[in-house]
UniProtKB/TrEMBL annotation:
<dbReference type="InterPro" id="IPR004358">
    <property type="entry name" value="Sig_transdc_His_kin-like_C"/>
</dbReference>
<keyword id="KW-0418">Kinase</keyword>
<keyword id="KW-1133">Transmembrane helix</keyword>
<feature type="transmembrane region" description="Helical">
    <location>
        <begin position="182"/>
        <end position="206"/>
    </location>
</feature>
<keyword id="KW-0808">Transferase</keyword>
<dbReference type="InterPro" id="IPR003594">
    <property type="entry name" value="HATPase_dom"/>
</dbReference>
<keyword id="KW-0902">Two-component regulatory system</keyword>
<dbReference type="GO" id="GO:0016301">
    <property type="term" value="F:kinase activity"/>
</dbReference>
<keyword id="KW-0472">Membrane</keyword>
<keyword id="KW-0812">Transmembrane</keyword>
<keyword id="KW-0597">Phosphoprotein</keyword>
<feature type="domain" description="Histidine kinase">
    <location>
        <begin position="221"/>
        <end position="433"/>
    </location>
</feature>
<dbReference type="InterPro" id="IPR005467">
    <property type="entry name" value="His_kinase_dom"/>
</dbReference>
<dbReference type="InterPro" id="IPR036890">
    <property type="entry name" value="HATPase_C_sf"/>
</dbReference>
<dbReference type="InterPro" id="IPR036097">
    <property type="entry name" value="HisK_dim/P_sf"/>
</dbReference>
<dbReference type="Pfam" id="PF02518">
    <property type="entry name" value="HATPase_c"/>
</dbReference>
<dbReference type="InterPro" id="IPR050351">
    <property type="entry name" value="BphY/WalK/GraS-like"/>
</dbReference>
Length: 433
């Protein structure tokens, strides 16, 4: 971007210089000297200069008198208008303001020192002709030096005058900008491309960082999850090695039960990881027509047996709704939501059904720890876990709700969450009727 800005700036300066040269050349072609403007006016001017010089030489007037007479000559307005007309006619594309200022008025006596009546830098107060009020935004077109020779009574004297023409083109910035349009558009385009590439790169970087964080989290979680059943299995086998335990039926059975439970848990974990490694369109649903309320009730009843201490209620406002669903996947999904409710501190859960805008809605309402508003949009992302979940020492892989969302989406449905931290959570699943 710095290079671009530098290039644009350099081009601008170059174009300004080029523009000035063009104007200088064109004006040079129009007025090679002022005498071709109007010779009678010019001879009037020469006569004035001559009489002023002669009077000065004779000591009849001072330097100041000469200067003020030169600058207040009567023919000046007429010459200004003539020049203006000439510019308008010959340079119709530009609106030009100009000023011709007198810099030097010097009398020479042949071999002796010059007598400078005045010699100043170009200065708008010394304007001879023109309509410019200031030289600030004007540029020098040319300087013009003239010497008159032999016209004075006293032949030794010569008069040297120097004047400069300054020009300002109205709206010159616009003219230059127009000439730079192509460069400006190209630069803007390349700057926009650059910014876009930068934004894309940063976004990709952030995304990659997020993916890598998620992976690290997942690996930590799964190691944590695998450790407990493996440790229990290790201890159980150690215990079984003791003969007195093997001889006691009750102890033996209890250890075998533990081994089987831990085995199931490991199996479940592996199943969960396997199931979630499939993308949404790879999930193969085996749909069948089922009575949804019955189906929900059977899940609720099974859940009550597993978690007898949880107060699990139903509030069905629909009856015998027949939907085409995949029983196996949806059972796992609903159980994920119910198990989450228990995992995240609920004592009572209500399962509600109703019809909302032609959709079958199933709501799981719990009184658990709730979820902060700013975390809710991430809940259904793969491997996402609210940090607070770790604080409460609850285990999980962050796959439960991701799976729910995938399965419901595969049924062309949607999942949403309403929750407040500390006030419980409501998950609503909408299915097509
Ligand atoms: P996890 O294996 O961590 O339970 P989930 O995908 O099932 O993964 O849930 C994602 C996160 O959502 C959890 O870590 C938890 O913080 C939050 N969460 C899910 N269900 C509930 C709930 N009923 N109450 C409070 N927080 C919940």
């Amino acid at each position: 971007m710095t290079v671009q800005c530098y290039l644009v700036k350099t081009t601008y300066e170059y174009k300004v210089a080029q523009f000035h040269t063009q104007i200088k050349n064109e004006i040079g072609l129009i007025t090679n000297n002022y005498s071709d403007i109007d010779s009678t006016l010019i001879s009037k001017k020469e006569a004035l200069y001559k009489s002023l010089s002669e009077n000065y030489i004779k000591g009849k007037n001072t330097k100041l008198d000469v200067k003020s007479s030169v600058l207040q000559a009567q023919y000046q307005n007429a010459i200004t208008q003539k020049l203006q007309h000439k510019f308008e006619r010959d340079l119709p594309n530009f609106k030009i303001d100009f000023a011709i200022v007198l810099n030097k008025f010097i009398l020479y006596k042949n071999t002796q020192k010059a007598d400078t009546i005045f010699s100043e830098k170009p200065f708008i107060q010394n304007k001879l002709y023109g309509n410019l009020a200031s030289l600030n935004h004007a540029f020098l077109v040319r300087s013009y030096v003239r010497t008159t020779n032999g016209t004075f009574e006293n032949q030794d004297y010569k008069l040297l005058t120097e004047d400069s023409m300054y020009v300002s083109v109205i709206d010159w910035e616009m003219i230059i900008l127009k000439r730079m349009t192509f460069i400006l558009v190209l630069s803007l385009f390349s700057i926009i491309t650059l910014i876009s590439l930068f934004v894309i790169a940063i976004k990709a970087l952030i995304k990659q960082k997020k993916v890598s964080d998620v992976k690290t989290d997942f690996i930590n979680n799964i190691t944590h999850e695998l450790k407990t059943p493996l440790a229990t299995l290790g201890i159980s086998t150690k215990i079984l090695e003791q003969k007195n335990i093997r001889d006691n039926d009750e102890n033996f059975n209890s250890i075998v039960n533990t081994i089987s439970r831990q085995n199931n848990r490991l199996q479940n974990l592996i199943d969960q990881v396997m199931a979630n490694s499939l993308a949404e369109n790879e999930i193969e649903l085996k749909k069948e027509k089922i009575e949804t309320e019955d189906f929900l009730l059977s899940i609720v009843n099974d859940f009550k047996i597993t978690f007898p201490k949880i107060n699990l209620k139903t509030d069905f406002q629909t009856q015998k709704t027949i939907l085409v669903l995949d029983k196996f996947h949806l059972t796992t999904a609903f159980l994920n939501v119910l198990e989450n409710a228990v995992k995240y501190g609920s004592n009572s859960i209500t399962v509600k059904t109703k019809i909302i805008e032609n959709q079958f809605s199933i709501t799981f309402e719990d009184d658990g720890i709730g979820i902060a508003k700013n975390k809710q949009s991430f809940l259904f992302e793969k491997f996402y876990r609210v940090e607070q979940g770790n604080l409460h020492n609850t285990k999980g892989l962050g796959l439960g709700l991701y799976y729910v969302n995938q399965i419901v989406k595969a049924h062309q449905g949607s999942v949403s969450v309403i929750s407040d931290l500390g006030k419980g959570t409501q998950f609503t699943i909408l299915l097509k009727v």
